[in-house]
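Supplementary Note 3. Input sequence used for the single-chain structure prediction.
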Amino acid sequence: MTRARHAALCMMLAAALSGGCTLLAPPGAEPDKEMLTAIPSELPARPRRDATLLVFPPEANAIYDTALMAYVDQPGRIAYFSRTEWAARPSQMLRGLLLRTLDRSGYVGAVVTPPYAGRIGCALRTEITAFEQDFTTEPPAFHLALRVSLIPAGDGAGVTTREVELREPLAERTAHGGAAAANAAIAKALKEVAEFVHAHAS
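The predicted structure, written as discrete structure tokens, is reproduced below.
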């Protein structure tokens, strides 16, 4: 066998072995996914307001407008878990929970979403201003803050705004523990939002 042919065979063997290793290498592990699913288990009975409520999709501070799961381990420092994510952006998941809560509450005549061309009594805007696991406190807690604004239709009345802020303790110092605390906080926050709507919807 000539030296050139021997070298060529060695190169082919190396390429084959390299390709085999690539095929046998395990794929990168997908991050675990967590969901927001909680709504208030019950709401106080209230007389229905004869109003149609237009609910805009929730918005979020840019830090939380992502499926990445945020946490704080030093004051003022936001980081994200590498092996666990939200199944969707928190604002997307909050949208469905907000609509279900307001519809089930029976506090207004109807709950609608854009685009809607009919007559409305008022519109609700929601913004997530904090949505993170806070490990700088003891015990660690999930920090949730929402800004909700009720905007009357027509002229004359001003916008009514409320800040809803909760800290739900974590049962365990893990991403999953944070997700469980987030669900508990969301259910409590949605109850406050529904009560706010009932108090100020026209």
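Residues 4-25 have pLDDT under 50 and may be disordered. Residues 175-200 form the longest helix (26 residues).
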